[in-house]
Amino acid sequence: MGVGCSKVSLCFWPSNLKTHMITNSSEMESAELAALPSFRVYSLDELREATCGFSKENIVSEHGAKAPNVVYKGQLVDDDRWIAVKRFNRSAWPDTRQFLDEAKSVGMLRSERLANLIGCCSEGNERLLVAQFMPHETLSKHLFHWENQPLKWAFRLRVALYLAQALDYCSSKGRALYHDLHAYRVLFDQDGNPRLSCFGLMKNSRDGKSYSTNLAFTPPEYLRTGRVTAESVVYSFGTILLDLLSGKHIPPSHALDLIRGKNYAMLTDSCLEGHFSNDDGTELVRIATRCLQYEARDRPSAKSLVIALASLQKETEVASYILLGVNKETNSSTQITKLSPLGEACSRVDLAAIHDILEKLGYNDHARIAQGLSFQMWSNHMQETINCRKRGDSAFGAKDFTTAIHYYTQFIEAGALACPIVFVRRCLCYLMNNKPQEALGDAMQAQVISPDCCSTLYLQAAALYSLGMDKDARETLEDGFLIEAKTKQEELKM
């Protein structure tokens, strides 16, 4: 759903009838990207505090003695944003300037197919990267170490497509090299969508020498030259296609032997038997084979992989979190990094706090409306209508909510001026009088008048919580947060 309209229609359309289409750059995703902070350099103290002193309990991935680069989950104190912090081996980046330049270059990228880089830190011997936190773990976990159910065929195809789109995006931005691409580098966000970790876009040296996986999975040209190329990345993508097809980490040489012998049964995941057509399986094998060609020049480009994989997609109307088998409800709050005081009060349905905030805001957050009211004051025939609003405001301030409803209703029925704040205030009055359905109608009407106002969505959420529609309330809070974050981002650019 786009951020400009409510999660709930006036007839309360059931949530399970909503359509979730696969899209490369939906309005919601664009709003999420706009809400991301600009890349910045963090202090070591900030990241130490965010990760509770780099506590062992906060470690979310670890690579062992040969590549002891640890990733921590953290939460920034200044905006409550959940982050992933990668702490490098002290010898990985001896050149501070090179590290900062690389990080800033990768930090310029912004895509809904990436776990985006939002900052870094370089103090003394410390080298750290800061990225968006992805709550639903890695492809490796869901593919090789699943507990409840294996990954569905339709979702495996979606993972392949989204990963190809990520590589194509990076290539279009001049970052075609990705180091050590494997199933641990594919992460799942709060909506269950696959994303490529931005950490692999960093290289440890100017000449691109960075590869640490098992030699059986290493591109042949890397073994000859020690260099990563764009074609090497496509080779590694081919190994992930094998992972998705087989549910196992099969060395490419062995897989190619099975393919040449047309022994597809040993190559495909037995858990998927009967869940996909032979044609689809054959086509995915064909694409993987092209990626794994010995000669780099014979491999396809990322763009051609996107085209080939797009035609294979299944169940495109089903949301990723459903196919992945995770509960989006428990993770929707991860998308909301920090609500404004009004959003926070609405999330708790703290009506007294909402009243205090609306009183302090007055009509200032709608300067356009305030100017309209001032203009109308010059017309004598409008004076009584304006007085109704003033009487309503006076009753609202005195917490006489029944009287406020009476005067606000007179103002609205006069129909002379569409004022969203009056609807927002009457919404709260209805909530105070235990009339959540009427409150929801007012909040939605306010949004129709002013679609870019986050407060209308926050009040909708409070009404939805009061109606017991918690899932829709949480989603509406998210939409309000995205609008507010986008507005702030635009203000910073001015």
Explain what you see.
It is a single chain. The protein has 494 residues and is of the alpha+beta class. It contains 20 helices and nine strands. The strands form two sheets. A six-stranded mixed sheet has the order 1-6-7-4-3-2, with helices on both faces. Strands 5-9-8 form a three-stranded mixed sheet, with helices on one face. A hairpin with a 2-residue loop joins strand 6 and strand 7. Helix 5 packs antiparallel against helix 7 (230-246), helix 7 packs antiparallel against helix 9 and helix 17 runs parallel beside helix 19. The two termini are 28 Å apart. GO terms for molecular function: ATP binding; protein serine/threonine kinase activity.
C-alpha end-to-end distance: 28 Å
Tell me, rounded to a whole number, the average pLDDT: 83
**Helix content range of the residues, please?**
40-55%
- Within the largest sheet, what's the order of strands? 1-6-7-4-3-2
Shape: elongated
Q: How much β-strand is present in the residues? A: 5-15%
User: What is the structural class?
Assistant: alpha+beta
- Number-wise, the strands total 9
- Report the biggest beta sheet as strand number plus sense, adding barrel if it closes: 6 strands, mixed
Helices, by number, come to 20
Helix-strand pattern: HEHEEEHEEEHHEEHHHHHHHHHHHHHHH
Radius of gyration over all CA atoms, rounded: 27 Å
- Model regions low in confidence, pLDDT < 50 over at least 5 residues: 1-28, 205-209, 329-335, 365-378
Short synopsis of the structure:
This protein is an alpha+beta fold and 494 residues long. The protein is 48% helix and 8% strand.
